[in-house]
Specification:
This protein is mostly helical. It has one domain. It is built from four helices and no strands. Helix 1 (3-28) runs parallel beside helix 4 (68-93) and helix 3 (40-62) packs antiparallel against helix 4. The chain is elongated.
Length: 111
């Protein structure tokens, strides 16, 4: 197997697919109302990672001589897991460090 090809193509597919989706989400997330209304750009955030994984698997399938199906499957699975890892990493890095505290209430004397 050409493990270098599988690893490099899976890594590039994960970075391109999930990176472009994260870039769309970060630039469009000024308000959550924009992300909740479905349009072409928001739909692209779902399609881009899937398309990049499929294209990576197809690329490996066409550029190997032996065990094509195995290498294409391995590339697809690896790219999907790497994409998930990039999404989780971006979610951790862009999250708030301190949670929002509730507004303090004034104490009331009961009695």
């Amino acid at each position: 197997m050409r493990l270098k090809l599988v690893m490099i193509v899976a890594l590039i597919a994960a970075l391109v697919g999930s990176g472009s989706s994260i870039a769309i989400i970060v630039t469009r997330s000024a308000s959550l109302r924009v992300l909740s209304s479905p349009d072409l750009v928001v739909t692209a955030t779902l399609v881009l990672p899937i398309a990049s994984v499929i294209l990576a698997a197809f690329f490996v399938y066409r550029h190997t001589a032996r065990r094509r199906r195995t290498q294409a499957l391995l590339t697809g699975v690896l790219a999907a897991f790497l994409s998930l890892g990039v999404f989780i990493l971006a979610s951790i890095l862009t999250s708030r460090n301190t949670p929002l505290q509730p507004h303090p209430t004034t104490p009331r004397n009961i009695g």
